[in-house]
Amino acid sequence: MPQVSSDVLVLDNFIGGRWVKAHATEYFDVHNPAAGEVIGRTPLSTAADVDAAVASATNAFPAWRDTPVNARAQVLYRLKALMERDFEELARTVTTEHGKTLYEARGSVRRGIECVEVACGAPSLMQGLGLEDIATGIDCHVVRQPIGVCAAIAPFNFPAMVPLWFLPFAIVTGNTFVLKPSEQVPLTQRKMVDLLQRSDLPPGVVNLVNGGREVVDAICDHPGIRAVSFVGSTAVARHVYQRATHAGKRAQALGGAKNFVVVMPDADLDRSIGVISESFYGCAGERCLAGSMLVPVGDVHRETRDRMVAAAQSLKVGDGMQPDVTMGPVISARHRERVVGYIERGVAEGAKLLVDGRRTRVADRPNGYFVGPTVFDEVSPRMAIGHDEIFGPVAAIAPAKTLEDAIAMMRSHPNANATSIFTSSGKAAREFAKHASASMVGVNIGVAAPMAYFPFGGAKDSFFGDLKAHGRDGIEFYTDKKVTISRWF
Ligand code: NAD
């Protein structure tokens, strides 16, 4: 395990089954965003570190791919047991380095464990197809085989969950793996790799390289890597997809979002306003599934607006470790400035600011990166707050006259990750689900997050690739289908 240098942890890479120093000359400070304190230093590793990780994964591949799938799954059963044992510690690490509340952090660890559980089904999920006598005396069968060394690049917002959308599916199908955490939140993934090591995973099957863009570009370019999974903002997702596929790799890149939440006049607001508010303010809005545009249709505008204002004002902002806190800080001082900048642009562009989170202060955490829940009304999709992904606790109310207008507003946006409708009309829900541009749709559900046995990913500028994350798509992404046609004399 990495050593603590003075009072701040300096992170190492994990290569060939050991924690090793990175070839880094620069470091990124990891913060506890509630306290505004530096709690670690992420080495900005170099292409030489990626080379070492790929060499280790390449060496480990032949023996691992020959390990029976059931034995590979046993490693994941052991990992699950260790994650259950250390569940609380993992959740507390997520809250410490990311800021989301402990309740939210626990939910994200649970989602990560679900991915491990689903991947344990590989002996069934990996099975192929077969048909005898495709011509007289000739049989055909298809098996799924691992493809080699695979890599995943993670964002900052779900350190316990997003890496597990990929890692368990990649290794259980017989591949070896290189993980690059976000430099902003490396601590949870360090713990998870430590648990993997204790799960009797052979050295080299999983490697971890800390760093930033140099590591990302080296992963995209490396001739020894066969597949790249990426999750992050749209600009970097597009870059990674183009660069990795240009180098001949299989790639899937999940990008940013601008999610529309539509409220119909027949919505049951008494039962829905809690989940609608949670959709916008959960994880301080730092979710790719977060509501961003709230679209009341017709005469439900005033009631939706008033209830949203009341819901925003009822939240308690503070350190996510405290049990009564319902919204934590955003990830960094820089991101706080960015979110505040968007609120200022919203005011300048003529939206009506109903709840202003800019001046929110937390008495016992004076240095934390807090932005309070914010509500704007009369937002147009042409305004910056109506168009850009803010990734903070800002609800932009943009009323529409009809459901068709609401759908058209959503469809005109380049992102298409998730969306939700609140209604008691089956017909409206059906129309909405059919014509929504987003590929994750909630009906009376605020955050339409597919479980680990379904595909996760958006459309348009929210997703580059074809096979999505986890579920059967995960198995498909990490395997090649080999067809054998045979005749015996
Ligand atoms: P980001 O794009 O800044 O960073 C993601 C990863 O890319 C990190 O590991 C980072 O080190 C690396 N990176 C950053 N800039 C780079 C560059 N110029 N060149 C190469 N690599 C670079 O994203 P983030 O801020 O960490 O995460 C938030 C974003 O992720 C939001 O846009 C959010 O919507 C998105 N996200 C999407 C999903 C999804 O399922 N679609 C899920 C979670 C997060």
Terminal Cα span: 58 Å
The largest sheet has its strands arranged as: 16-17-18-15-14-20-21
Radius of gyration: 23 Å
Distinct ligands = nicotinamide-adenine-dinucleotide
Categorize the overall geometry. Answer: globular
Structural class: alpha/beta
Contiguous low-pLDDT stretches (5 residues minimum) are 1-5
Number of beta strands = 24
How much of the sequence is in beta strands? 15-25%
Number of helices: 16
Describe this structure in words.
The chain is globular. The longest helix is centred in the first third of the chain and has 19 residues, at 47-65. Helix 2 (69-85) runs antiparallel to helix 4 (102-119) and helix 3 packs across helix 4. It has 489 residues and is an alpha/beta fold. Strands 16-17-18-15-14-20-21 form a 7-stranded mixed β-sheet, with helices on both faces. A 6-stranded mixed β-sheet has the order 11-10-9-12-13-23, with helices on both faces. A 4-stranded mixed β-sheet has the order 1-2-6-5, with helices on one face. A hairpin with a 4-residue loop joins strand 5 (27-32) and strand 6 (37-43). 37% of the residues lie in helices and 23% in strands. Bound molecules: nicotinamide-adenine-dinucleotide. Nicotinamide-adenine-dinucleotide binds next to helix 8 and helix 9.
